[in-house]
Amino acid sequence: MAESASGLGTDLLPSWRARIRPRELPEAAWLEPLPEELTVALMARLLHVDERHYRRIEKGTAHGVSVTLITAIAQLLRLAPDETEMLYLWCGKPPPQAPPADTGEVPRDLVEVLEREEHGAYWCSAGYRMMAANRRALANWPWMEPGVNIMVSLLRGPGRAQCVDWETRWAPLLLAQLRRELIQAPGDGELWQLVDRLVADDPLVDRIWRATAESQPPAYGTTRPMLMPPWRPYTGGPVEITVTALVPVSRPDLRLVVGVPAPDVAPQLPELPELP
Fold first, then answer.
1. pTM reported for the whole predicted model
2. Where would one find the signal peptide in this protein (predicted)?
3. Which CATH number goes with the domain that contains 140?
């Protein structure tokens, strides 16, 4: 249990218990006689746990409270969603996060964050589907448009031509990133479909996937060379960019990906082309 829980007072669960009348609980219908109030002893009996253990939970001193038991307590006490979250925290566990509804759109406040970013940046889904991009991203990566899959574009599509030393500095890192995500979520069918789409009928991608991807670091946070049209007047060649990704707490299904050129590339960012 979190150390801070015991400093919040010990009346949290007793106050929730006081709202419940045992005779109104279907879970207690088989018990006779029933007390007028939902006591600690009755709670422990209904939860099928040791009474001393439940007392420690109410006092905020229990350790290793299971998620299953927390869920059972919340159901028995008829807790509201915000109260259930508080119970999880009281027991030293992070509240479960319900997956946000995928509306296919980026919330306006996150679009504003994107528009304020001076470097090329875009929002994409956890499956690498591009959802929104700022003007500099569209100038840097002309193939980018809503709905395009970033991984497919960089490994098998038009983005591949922009990746300098693609076979050694891009493909292994991108595929290693996918491999790590599959290890973390082996049941993610969307990721497996993406991998199948990438390696099918492309012997080079398939060879890198099988031979070298597992030994490479993840792609985010690394610096790699890339050809980007707005930078040609300044560099005449590729630009070293560091690719970073951020995940908002409010939308863990989204990623803000930013490509930041090395500081010694040019004294200032190139001018953006006029909007049509």
1. 0.63
2. none
3. 3.30.450.180
Bridge partners of 257, per DSSP, are 122, 245
The pLDDT tens digits of the residues spanning 106-153 come to 999 999 999 999 999 999 998 999 999 999 999 999 999 999 999 999
Instruction: Assess whether 58 and 141 both reside in one domain.
Output: no
CATH of the domain at 49: 1.10.260.40
Q: Are residues 128 and 251 in the same domain?
A: yes
Question: What phi, psi does 92 have (nearest 5°)?
Answer: 80, 25
Peptide bond into 33 cis (omega under 30): yes
Residue range of the domain that includes 214? 108-261
Exposure string of 215-239, with b = 16+ CB inside 10 Å and e = fewer, is: ebeebeebebbbebebbeeeeeebb
Q: How far apart are CA 134 and CA 152, in angstroms?
A: 20
Q: Write the DSSP assignment of 142-155 as a string of letters.
A: TT--TT-BHHHHHH
Instruction: Report the pLDDT averaged over residues 209-231.
Output: 78
**Ramachandran assignment for 181, one of left (phi > 0), alpha (psi -120 to 50 degrees), beta (any other):** alpha
Q: Cα(205)–Cα(171) distance, rounded to whole angstroms? A: 7
234 part of a folded domain? yes
Pair (12, 149) in one structural domain: no
Q: Where are the alpha helices (DSSP H) in 77-216?
A: 81-90, 108-116, 135-140, 150-155, 171-184, 189-199, 203-211
Q: Do 133 and 217 sit in the same domain of this protein?
A: yes
